[in-house]
Every structure is written in C-alpha cells, then in structure tokens.
C-alpha cells in the first residue's frame, strides 16, 4: 500500500495521490483500468482546454487546466513506474537534459544567439541532429521527420509547411499563397461541376485547406488558433440569430434561411 501521508512538496503529494488511485488494493476501479492508449485522448482534450483558457485570458481557469494537464503527465509516470519503463523523475530528468542540450547559449560556454529567430534556427538544427541520430531506418533523414501524425490536422499541416520553408521550399510572399488558394478553389469547382466522386472532392478540398494553412503560416498566424476563434465567432453570432428568432416566437428550423441571414447580418453589424 502506498504511503498516503501528504509529503511536503505539492508534486510529491500529487504523485502519492496518483499511486493511491492506481493501488491494486483499495484504488479507484476506473484509474486501474486505464492504459497509455486510453489516457491519450484525455491528454489531448486537456491541452486544448489549456489553450482555451489562455485565449479567454482566464488565469484562474488556466491554473485549473494546467493542473489537469499536469495530472495527465503524473498518470503516465505512474503507469511507467508500474511497468518499469520510467517514472516522474526520469521524465523530469529527460526534459531537463534536453533543454540544456538545446540551449547551449544559456547553459554552455562560448555559444551565443543574437535573436529569437536565430534561436528558432538553432533549435531546429539541434532537433534535426537528434532525429538523425535516433533514426531507426536506413532512409536518409528528412526535414519533415518528427512531425507527429497524431497532431490536429491544422497544426500538423502548419508544422509541415514550416519545416519545408526552413529548407527553402516556400513562396517568397503571401500574395503567391493567395494565388495558390485561388488555383485550388478553381480545381474544387471543376471537380464539383464534373460530378466527381467523394474521394476526388476529398483530395481537392484537402489541398485547398493545406493552402489556407500555409497562408496563415506566411502571415505569422496560428491556423489552429485562428479557426478556434473563427468558430467562437460563429457560435456567438448564431446564438444571436437564435435569440432573435426566439423573440419572434420562432425556432431556426421554422424560420427559413432568409430570416436567419438577416439576423446574422444584424449580429455581425452589432459587433
């Protein structure tokens, strides 16, 4: 049975709570059933909730959400300790070693970095060397190695575009990305007009979305965050449409597009 006394440091207390939750004798049945795979979706959800609290400038909420995210790390650490893979100290040691290794201008002797952009370049160079060193295949390392397939699609697309741009595969100006977007829109139109199968439309719309993500990157914007904010704007305006219809004794399904569009325009103008 793990020691359930509250240690002095908050992190030690949290680690002890996690061990107690996973204790075969008297632990929580739900926590005991979890695996790395079943916890992973919760980790992604918690990371998004952290991002949302930041976007809303909700510091109290951010504190809570960061605690939830930290608990995810503690959960993995406990499972790692149980199967002998790693523990929390090993995780902390690994990231500490990595941060020191990737910041020789701070922790080393003689290295200097003059700007944030120079640091990004140095960071990517260091990461590329690490990826090449631990490559498991005989294939030569790629500039795109290490961009996780489990990332949200917009985030992954932006990272892929940024990686390619760092080795010179990029448009010089944002206007050229706009031209590419217009080209992709025309290709979508052609496929729709020809009655293309769903898989063809899927491919062309995917190309269009990728081009839009590249525009966000070229303008120095975060595509994932921009879409989240755009989605919140849509929610806010649609709620105004619903409220306007309710004042007329109507529901959206009864109102028709013309009435809803008029209320949408009013909501937009009121902002």
Question: How would you portray this structure in words?
Answer:
The protein is mainly alpha-helical and 271 residues long. It has 13 helices and no strands. α8 (153-166) packs across α10 (198-218) and α11 (223-247) crosses α13 (257-270). The longest helix is centred in the first third of the chain and has 25 residues, at 59-83. The protein is globular and about 65 Å long.
Helical content band: over 70%
Low-confidence stretches: none
- Overall 3D form: globular
Total helices: the number is 13
Mean of residue pLDDT values: 89
Radius of gyration: 25 Å
What letter string, H or E per element, gives the SSE order? HHHHHHHHHHHHH
Q: Count the strands?
A: 0
Structural class assignment: mainly alpha
CA-CA gap between termini: 58 Å
Main pleated sheet: none
Strand content: under 5%
């Amino acid at each position: 049975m793990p020691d359930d006394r509250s240690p002095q440091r908050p992190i030690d207390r949290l680690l002890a709570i996690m061990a107690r939750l996973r204790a075969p004798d008297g632990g929580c049945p739900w926590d005991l059933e979890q695996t790395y795979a079943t916890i992973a979706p919760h980790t992604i959800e918690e990371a998004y909730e952290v991002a949302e609290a930041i976007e809303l400038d909700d510091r109290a909420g951010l504190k809570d959400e960061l605690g939830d995210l930290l608990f995810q790390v503690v959960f993995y650490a406990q499972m790692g300790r149980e199967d002998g893979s790693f523990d929390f100290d090993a995780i902390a040691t690994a990231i500490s070693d990595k941060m020191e290794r990737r910041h020789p201008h701070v922790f080393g002797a003689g290295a200097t970095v003059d700007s944030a952009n120079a640091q990004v370049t140095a960071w990517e160079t260091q990461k590329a060397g690490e990826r090449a060193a631990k490559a498991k295949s005989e294939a030569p390392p790629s500039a795109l190695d290490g961009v996780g397939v489990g990332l949200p699609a917009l985030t992954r697309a932006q990272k892929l575009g940024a990686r390619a741009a760092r080795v010179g595969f990029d448009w010089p100006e944002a206007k050229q990305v706009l031209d590419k977007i217009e080209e992709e829109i025309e290709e979508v139109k052609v496929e729709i007009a020809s009655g293309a199968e769903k898989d063809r439309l899927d491919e062309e719309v995917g190309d269009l979305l990728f081009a839009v993500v590249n525009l966000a990157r070229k303008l120095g914007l975060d595509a994932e965050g921009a879409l989240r904010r755009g989605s919140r704007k849509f929610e806010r305006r649609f709620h105004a449409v619903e409220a306007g219809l309710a004042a007329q004794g109507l529901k959206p399904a009864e109102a028709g597009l013309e009435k809803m569009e008029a209320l949408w325009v009013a909501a937009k103008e009121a902002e």
